Amino acid sequence: MLKTLFLPSVLILLLAVGCNKATPAEQQGLGDTPAAVVVDSAVGRLRAQVAKPRVGDVYVVQFQPGGAAARRYFFYHVFRATPDSAYLHPAGKDAATAAADLTRPEFQPSANVMVYTLAELLELLQEQPGDVNKARLIQVRQVP
């Protein structure tokens, strides 16, 4: 129900934008679109990527080790994907940034294998209650 109301609301909002000359933000497709809509579409794109895992995807999981002030990032390399699951090799080490150079040896896939169902992958998009590390999947990258 919420989705059926959301799409018409967004369309009405976009149609209501005046005929003024486009600003640089509008030329990039952001225009007068509220920030919440832009964020929601980014979350939607991430959800769509996770819902259709592909070999070569690298899942970036943000976490905050217990007691630490800084966030850290861990990488999971998809090496096999089926319609209902993904097989992952975790990287050997976590990083201080989500933009870490995946060609470095410490971020290469390890020999460990982790299997996730599609439902489990989608759960990674949100912090789970009771998770002391506050882990969640925040980005899908491709191996360079």
UniProtKB/TrEMBL annotation:
<keyword id="KW-0732">Signal</keyword>
<feature type="signal peptide">
    <location>
        <begin position="1"/>
        <end position="22"/>
    </location>
</feature>
<protein>
    <submittedName>
        <fullName>Uncharacterized protein</fullName>
    </submittedName>
</protein>
